[in-house]
Amino acid sequence: MELYIIRHGDPDYANDTLTEKGWKEAEALAPRLLRIQPTDLYASPLGRAQDTARPSCKALGMEFTVENWMVESMDYMKRCALDDPTQTDAGYTVTFADGPTLQKDFAPERAATVEQMIRDSDAFLARHGYVREGYRYRAVEENERKVCCFCHGGFGSAWIAHLLGMYPVFNWHQFALRTTSVTHFRFHASESGYAVPIAIYIGDVSHLWDTGL
């Protein structure tokens, strides 16, 4: 399975849609989706993610399915005091191959949101044939699906971090997911029957290179 995590276009947050620039970005994204030829399209319930998907849906002759768990949350935007030596006790759990590991965060009140995202991610991937067991995924239905998800910067960074087994707090600080950027993961089971999500690229905006956007 191929998984594509796509951030929405330049946002008009006040009206939960796209700016003029954002609509141009979404139009420039559509030919890329045509080349990918996705089998499944999903979108956050928010307008800016769905509006980003619309030009691609039109080009593909497909409709997206709304996934409420892909919604953006202000919890992802809380300040991360990376240089504050007093912020040492808060955290949330990410499960690695050797079991649950407490990850240091620096905004403990968002822990519940991140933990819920992890549960929802695991349920979503299980629906698509990959059941999480520790750090890896058991392929109960190895497949060639191409799954495209239109979502958000804060949410997307947290989801990418979970798939990579990394601290989301560092993704929010150090990964720049530009508007309409595409992140590509590949799930391919080894002979053992397990797959580890492999990042093919993160935050790619090559579809905008010749547009001046």
Descriptive account of the structure:
- With 213 residues, the protein is α/β, with parallel strands linked by helices.
- The chain has a domain at 2-79 and 142-208: Phosphoglycerate mutase-like (Rossmann fold, 3-Layer(aba) Sandwich).
- Helix content is 31%, strand content 26%.
- It has helices at residues 20-36, 47-60, 111-127, 153-164, 168-174; strands at residues 2-7, 11-12, 17-18, 40-43, 65-66, 91-96, 99-104, 130-133, 136-139, 146-151, 182-186, 194-195, 198-204.
- The strands form 4 sheets. The protein has a 6-stranded mixed β-sheet with strand order 5-4-10-1-11-13.
- Helix 1 (20-36) packs across helix 2, helix 3 crosses helix 4 and helix 4 (153-164) crosses helix 5 (168-174).
- The model has no long low-confidence stretch (mean pLDDT 88).
CATH superfamily of the domain at 2-79 and 142-208: Phosphoglycerate mutase-like
Describe the largest sheet.
Answer: 6 strands, mixed
The CATH class name of the domain at 2-79 and 142-208 reads Alpha Beta
Strand segment tally? 13
- Strand-residue fraction? 25-35%
Shape: globular
Q: Helix and strand string, N-terminal first?
A: EEEHEHEEEHEEEHHEEE
| Widest β-sheet, arrangement of strands | 5-4-10-1-11-13
**Number of helices in the DSSP assignment:** 5
Nearest-integer average pLDDT: 88
Helix content: 25-40%
Distance between the termini: 31 Å
Low-confidence stretches: none
Would you tell me which CATH topology of the domain at 2-79 and 142-208 applies? Rossmann fold
Q: Which class do the helix and strand fractions yield?
A: alpha/beta
What is the alpha-carbon Rg in Å?
17 Å
What's the architecture of the domain at 2-79 and 142-208 in CATH terms? 3-Layer(aba) Sandwich
